[in-house]
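Let us practice reading a record.
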Amino acid sequence: MRQKFIIEKRGVHFGLLNKGRPWGLRRISYEKWPAHRTIENHIKVELVLFCLAKGKAVVDIGTGKQEVRVGDCFFLSKNSPHYFKIYDKECKIYRIAFSGNNIFRDVKKYLGEPKKIFHPAQPNEVFETFQKLLDEAHSMRPFRLKMLEKLVPVLLTTVRRNHSESNSSRDPSNRLWQQAKNWIEKAEPSKASVAELARACHCSSEHLSRVFKKHSDTTPFECLFQRKMNRASNLLTNSDKTLRDIALTCGYGDEFIFSKAFKKHFGEPPGRWRKQAYQS
């Protein structure tokens, strides 16, 4: 049976036929919401991920009302009481709706407990990943759905490793965490390594690992690896570079090792990933 979906300017609706597929994607969108718009116990699907791209709002995900600002991400579910109100003049929001009996288990695998608000240290990286999913959805063909589904874990991982549990400026590890994130953003993937990152932050690799664990529940190596894979995916889709050149650009001296790492991360070898991108 062919996958049915509706493409609109602000997003893509996948319909009920997507139920039962990995992640059970129902909708991906980027929307403008007016001031005072309110959602209260109105979600009709299992889980919806929101990311505030502009403005301010108040949200209650079952832990009390809290203010959310630009970059904050949170989940609302039909299975639990919820409240979401815009109180700025206008808000811009990324939204992804999921369905399926296993969606909570799948999300928890990448994000941990979804009943909390995620505060990204680098909102722009989260926005870029959301936009990548939206662009992929807008260029959809039925055979491209698998590629879109492979980008969902990438988004969830990006949200998780950008999340900072501590927003206190008096926490000395907070400054180091921000410094490390900024270095990863600007560093060339071909030269980026945990040792170089630790040297740039003037600390040991062991201390850096403890800081990353505290603020993002991940490791410096995983963050650098994610950055390299995102760069590789972009080059495969938007350039004519050979696989060898892309491997070197991303810090891999061996094309075979690069292909193995790429397939482990995205579930597809780089050659097939590029072929599917060209077919769209």
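A brief commentary: Residues 165-170 have pLDDT under 50 and may be disordered.
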